[in-house]
């Protein structure tokens, strides 16, 4: 959900507006997401949810993504918010989507170009049965092996008495004037 690995991340050289414009002109292919039970190790903590989410959307060129496993992490009413700025005007732009819309909009490109995202560091703030995880990430193109983006995913999670769920993910990319905060950089 991130980057929450949208088409904007995968094709960051084309720019967010070009991607959004293309998406508006063409209808994305529907990705069938199988319903699978959540893995106990994926839903045992807020941090486990985050790491499983990164694993599910990452993979090499031609490698199918684990959409069923990923969807099992999310509340049925979960949503993503991809924040950014218009490169020409500097205006704040956002794209709100469901997990299904995310898979439909970027799934084919994640597979065809290969894409991986890994956590750099995280900070968790927990109160009772709710937790916010700020997780910095680095995204790479499998085809080129080059980093395509860095940023911060902000996960809102909750515990229902049996397991943890992701309620939402909001993210923004690192750029001039918007660096990843020091507390979310790897410790040396």
- Give the distance, in angstroms, between the N- and C-terminal Cα atoms: 28 Å
The whole-number mean of residue pLDDT values reads: 88
Largest sheet: 6 strands, mixed
Task: Output the CATH class name.
Answer: Alpha Beta
Our Rg estimate from Cα atoms comes to 16 Å
How does the helix and strand content classify structurally?
A: alpha+beta
Tally of DSSP helical segments:
5
Write down the overall geometry. Answer: globular
Strand content: 35-45%
Number of structurally distinct domains: 1
Looking at CATH, which topology would you report?
A: Nuclear Transport Factor 2, Chain: A
SSE sequence, one letter per element: HHHHEEHEEEE
- The stretches of 5 or more residues where confidence is low (pLDDT under 50) are 4-24
Strand order of the largest sheet: 2-1-6-5-4-3
What this model shows, in words?
- This protein is α+β, with helices and mostly antiparallel strands and 188 residues long.
- The protein has one domain (7-184): Nuclear Transport Factor 2, Chain: A (Roll), CATH 3.10.450.
- The protein has five helices and six strands; from the N terminus they run ααααββαββββ.
- Strands 2-1-6-5-4-3 form a six-stranded mixed β-sheet, with helices on one face.
- It starts with 6 loop residues before the first helix and ends in a 15-residue tail after the last strand.
Summarize it.
The protein is an alpha+beta fold and 188 residues long. The protein has helices spanning 7-10, 16-25, 46-57, 67-71, 99-113, and strands at residues 74-85, 92-97, 115-127, 130-141, 147-159, 164-173.
């Amino acid at each position: 959900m991130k980057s929450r690995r949208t088409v904007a991340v995968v094709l960051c050289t084309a720019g967010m507006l070009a991607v959004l414009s293309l998406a508006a002109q063409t209808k994305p292919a529907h990705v069938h997401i199988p319903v699978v039970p959540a893995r106990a190790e994926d839903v045992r903590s807020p941090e486990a949810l985050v790491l499983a989410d990164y694993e599910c959307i990452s993979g090499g060129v031609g490698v199918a993504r684990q959409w069923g496993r990923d969807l099992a992490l999310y509340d049925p009413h979960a949503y993503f918010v991809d924040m950014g700025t218009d490169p020409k005007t500097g205006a704040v732009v956002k794209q709100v989507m469901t997990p299904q819309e995310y898979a439909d909009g970027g799934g084919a490109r994640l597979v065809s170009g290969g894409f991986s995202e890994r956590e750099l560091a995280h900070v968790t703030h927990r109160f009772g049965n709710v937790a916010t995880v700020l997780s910095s990430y680095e995204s790479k193109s499998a085809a080129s092996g080059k980093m395509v983006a860095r940023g911060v995913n902000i996960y809102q999670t909750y515990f229902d008495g049996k397991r943890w769920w992701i309620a939402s993910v909001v993210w923004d990319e690192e750029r001039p004037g918007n660096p990843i905060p020091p507390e979310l950089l790897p410790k040396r």
